[in-house]
Write a structure and sequence with these properties.
This protein has about 80 residues and is α+β, with helices and mostly antiparallel strands. It is built from two helices and four strands; from the N terminus they run H-E-E-E-H-E. The strands form two sheets. It has a two-stranded parallel sheet with strand order 1-4. A two-stranded antiparallel ribbon has the order 2-3.
C-alpha cells in the first residue's frame, strides 16, 4: 500500500532524535491591501507535527527574519 507523503513524514519523524525547522518569510499574502511576507504553510505544519511527535525539548525553530507568524485558519478559509 502506498503511503501519503504526510504519513511518510510522520513515520520518519520517529526515527530522529530531534528536528530543526527553518521558518522564513517565503510567501506573500495580501492583508488589508498590503503585501505581508509569511512562512510557507507546509513549514508551519511540519513544525506542529515535529512538536507533537518529538516534543518541545527536541524541536528547534530557526527563524530567518520572519516577523509575522501565520494566523490559524480552518479548511473553510476562516480564521480560528
Amino acid at each position: 500500500m502506498v503511503q501519503l507523503p504526510v504519513e511518510q513524514f510522520l513515520e520518519n519523524l520517529l526515527r530522529f532524535d530531534a528536528a530543526v525547522v527553518v521558518l522564513g518569510a517565503d510567501n506573500v499574502q495580501k492583508k488589508a491591501n498590503e503585501d505581508v511576507h509569511v512562512p510557507r504553510h507546509n513549514v508551519v505544519v511540519e513544525l506542529g507535527a515535529s512538536l507533537a511527535r518529538l516534543g518541545i525539548k527536541r524541536t528547534f525553530l530557526a527563524n530567518m527574519e520572519c516577523r509575522v507568524i501565520v494566523e490559524p485558519w480552518n479548511v473553510f478559509n476562516q480564521r480560528v
